[in-house]
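Anyone? Bumping this.
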Amino acid sequence: MKALVWLLAFVLLLALEAPILRASEHAFLLPDVVVLAAIYLGSRAGWASGLLTAAAVGLFKDGFALAAPVGVFTEIAALGFLATRLVARRVDLGSAMPTMATCGVGTFVATLLFLLFEVIFHRAFDAWEEVLKAAPSIALGTMLVAVPVFGGLDRLAGLLQRGERMRGVSGRLR
Amino acid sequence: MIRSLLLRHHRRILLVLVLVAPMLSMYFHGKPRSGSTAMERGLLRVTSPMAAATGALEDAIVGVWTGYVDLVGVSERNAELEAQNRELLGEALRSRAQAEELRRVKRLCGFRAAKSELRTVPAKVVGREVSQFFRVLRVRLDIAEHAEVKEGLAVVTHDGVVGRIEKLAGDYADVMLVTDARSAAHATIAGKGVVGTARGKGKQKEFGVEFVHLDRAERQESILPGDAVLTTGHDRVFPAGLEIGHVTEASPSRSGPYFEYTLTPAVTFATLEEVLIVVAHSAPAGDLPAPEASRGRRLRVDPANTPDG
């Protein structure tokens, strides 16, 4: 249930990305939702449900950005999730600064992975310079929104958990 | 036996599936193909309505903000006047939006009538900029006429060239803009004795054109900022004589026989609402007339800054 709610939340963020980009004057600060999803799920979700949810978010991103071969963002999301699982053992991804730092580094790594996959699988690709130029601003955007987005999703998860507990208590009373 | 094996190794199986399946998909979708795959069409069908819905949501929020929230100052002065004002402003906004839409549609219809050699179908823009790295526009096609629409067709407006259809699924299509780093169009400047290729740079507001100057005797004038760059039709995608953009700087960078000029697109992509898809057009024209708009925009520069100088 929680994984489904997280998936819907991240898909909503992906869908909102395009109009926000259009409306905002600071569109260059738009975050990388796939990186946010991979890091959030890697630090909060279970292994199997988290991996599948992260891959599903990546697949939706593939759908929203069809200019890249389908699968690029799915792979990035899955690898990001697995990497976050490893990082979360040493870094406290519940606090603000480590989360922001991980998101910044994660965005750069995701950009490099994106370029790597484009080079290997997408032979017509030649927009290297543009992708590399955009990376710092996307990393900054991802770092800035990571804490509020993660906080909001944590609150959502808390509400769900409380609702489930209440249902359990009322069931036992009956 | 198999069940217990699956249960024991389900983590490994899931890991391999999630990591290998996208790789195979990338390998398959990265190969040059003429059409879109079932998976791409499926994803387009799922994500396009979402993009259209969030676009409508944004319009609604902007509508509420401009129509109601901005009028708080007026309401403090007089409640009765505020209600009246709100109503009148709402009506005025609606009328202005309708008038603007009517003006756009009239200009498109005028363009359609003037370019009788082009057979076009209209399409509505439902989303744009779905990736930080590519310049793509998503359009919803007119259901009555969209059977003729194919991938690779040119997309234009009365202002000039927008791009070409990259992917198509159902009533939706993704358009690769002329400013996309992957875009290329054969181009010329009327009467200047130059031909070349206009290539995108992946930026929203500029792109480059590489011209090969013909023999000096054949050149009639130097290239100036404001000169309109037109399609030649030789690339068999864009019809001849449509404006791609205009030259921004008089001093080109040189690489071998090429002079690269920076262009500003003829079309403002950020405010684009309706477009025309060229489903058929006649062969390229020989001599291209300079459009009215470009003559009005031309700037005077020191001849020493031009390649001729």
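Late reply, but here is one note on the structure posted above: The radius of gyration of chain B is 25 Å.
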